[in-house]
Amino acid sequence: IKLSNKDKKSIDSPSKEAQQQQIRRLVIRRIVSQWLPLHTATLGMVVDVMPNPREAMKSRSQILFPSDSSSEDGRIVKSVSTCDRSEDAPVVVFVTKLFEVDSRSLSDYNEEDDDTTTMLGFARVFSGVLKHTTRLYLNGAKLLPSQVQLYLMMGNRQFREVNTVSAGSVVAIRHLDRCVDKFATLISEQT
Description:
Elements: H1 5-10, H2 16-35, H3 38-49, H4 53-64, H5 74-81, E1 92-102, E2 117-127, E3 129-131, E4 137-138, E5 142-143, E6 149-154, E7 158-162, E8 164-166, E9 170-174, E10 184-187
Antiparallel strand pairs: 1-2, 1-10, 2-9, 3-8, 4-5, 4-10, 6-7, 6-9
């Protein structure tokens, strides 16, 4: 493996031994970078090691819903623990954070809009099928004021608008910034 001029210029140690150690590091870094890029290896490990959403929810639901959950919440608990993707299952969505994006990264961007940035809620659908027309309650009590817009997150921070998202999926939700501060649970049924 040959070192580039840039690599040679980065070797700035005064002693010969330190220079040789820097050269060894550069060579090793070059060899390892040719094996498999870090992002590919990381994604591969996530796919191989992390459980799929349905398997993960079985163990996660025991933490989210203690055994003394009331019977009226039983339908919601069962739907979440099985990651129920049916149309008639109650929709449960957990919003983990709100983040600001450039409005031009949205697939439905209109140049006549005054806003240069938009707040989106990063969320996972735990059960049901979330539709842009679904009436959602904040933490099971307060009805959200309007319909939401749903976006799938694509590479390069691009967001494609969709009408439905099923359980197990990650979604960006627009128009939550008026009623959600940091994180929240959204449910299609009032509890």
